Amino acid sequence: MLAVRHNPNYPENCRGYDEEGYSDIHVGQQVVVRDGGGQTVASGKLTGCQFTADGGMKFPFVVQDVPEADFIAVEIGAERRGQVTYSLRDLVTSGWHVNLSL
How far apart are CA 95 and CA 82, in angstroms? Predict the structure, then answer.
């Protein structure tokens, strides 16, 4: 799940505004998973958008067939955002669920 802080001007399709730096965050955006060596091992997409009670937005995603590795990195949107790295232990403990926020 990717959570984005709310701007009351976001359109109903949840596409972020360029002037805020969120134009790459939208339904259909690619989610890339890499192993510890930086190789892409799986990918998926942001599959929907939900407005939250506190005025934010949540974008669920599922990435199938992620192989086990000591470390897995998840990247969404433009490369300038970077990636978030998780250890295998953390992924197993969370049931292979990750929560990211901007």
Answer: 23
Cα dihedral sign for 20, 16, 84, 58? positive
* Residue of 101 and 92 predicted with greater confidence: 92
Tell me which residue range forms the domain holding 45.
2-101
Number of domains in the chain: 1
Q: What is the mean pLDDT of residues 60-84?
A: 91
The answer to whether the beta carbons of residues 54 and 61 sit under 8 Å apart is no
pLDDT of residue 57: 79
Q: What is the pLDDT of residue 13?
A: 60
How far apart CA 41 and CA 38 sit, in angstroms, is: 9
The CATH number of whichever domain residue 55 belongs to comes to 2.60.40
Using CA atoms, how far apart are residues 32 and 6, in angstroms rounded to an integer? 24
Paired with 42 in beta bridges are 33
